[in-house]
């Protein structure tokens, strides 16, 4: 039996009805990379990676909604495996990665050309970060079990980015 991926709630208070949010790099891929970061065997590197991503996210998006009072509380709970909120903190971290603002393009709902769980080249072409397409390809093609800092740097870039809003004419 195939295990379903958990859904991560959208952490911002914007409304896009009747349009949809489209991930350029599939959220499942980003969550998988996030799990690799959390499992990184070098504690100093793991701490740096997590802290850098969270700091970048909150520096550009202080209004992001998490289950913790502050980003510092989130980081403490992630790094303290004995914390009663450790699992919740890891889930919030994965939610942040699932909804990297620079990886989201808002546009037409019910697209016939929606690629599903693969890289969305159409959305990438409409993204405000289109000039950084190498970042999208690097994240989408990441297959190793050891995350290097260049992958974290791409995530940071997308964390600092903005959601791209389009109109329906752009999807033709």
* Overall residue-averaged pLDDT value: 89
Strand order of the largest sheet: 1-2-3
Element order, helices and strands? Answer: EHHHHEHHHE
How many distinct folded domains?
Answer: 1
Secondary-structure-based class equals mainly alpha
State which percent range the strand residues make up.
5-15%
- Largest sheet geometry: 3 strands, mixed
Number of helical elements: 7
**How helix-rich are the residues, as a percent range?**
40-55%
Low-confidence stretches: 1-5
The span between the termini is: 38 Å
The number of strands is: 3
Q: Tell me which oligomeric state these chains represent.
A: single chain
Q: Tell me the overall shape.
A: globular
Task: Work out the radius of gyration.
Answer: 16 Å
What features would you describe in this structure?
This protein has 172 residues and is mostly helical. The protein has one domain. It has helices spanning 27-38, 43-60, 71-79, 86-98, 121-126, 133-141, 149-160, and strands spanning 20-23, 104-107, 164-165. Strands 1-2-3 form a 3-stranded mixed sheet. The longest helix has 18 residues, at 43-60.
């Amino acid at each position: 039996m195939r295990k379903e991926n958990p859904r991560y709630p959208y952490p911002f208070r914007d409304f896009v009805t009747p349009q949809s949010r489209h991930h350029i790099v599939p959220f499942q891929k980003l969550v998988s990379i996030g799990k690799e970061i959390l499992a990184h065997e070098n504690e100093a590197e793991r701490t740096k990676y997590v802290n850098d991503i969270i700091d970048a996210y909150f520096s550009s998006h202080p209004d992001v909604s998490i289950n913790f009072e502050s980003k510092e509380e989130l980081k403490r709970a992630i790094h303290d495996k004995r914390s009663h909120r450790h699992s919740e903190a890891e889930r919030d971290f994965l939610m942040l990665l699932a909804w990297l603002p620079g990886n989201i393009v808002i546009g037409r709902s019910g697209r016939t050309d929606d690629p599903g769980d693969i890289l969305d080249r159409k959305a990438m072409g409409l993204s405000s970060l289109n000039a950084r397409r190498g970042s999208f390809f690097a994240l989408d093609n990441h297959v190793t079990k050891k995350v290097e800092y260049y992958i974290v740097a791409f995530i940071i870039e997308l964390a600092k980015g903005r959601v791209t809003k389009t109109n329906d004419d752009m999807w033709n």
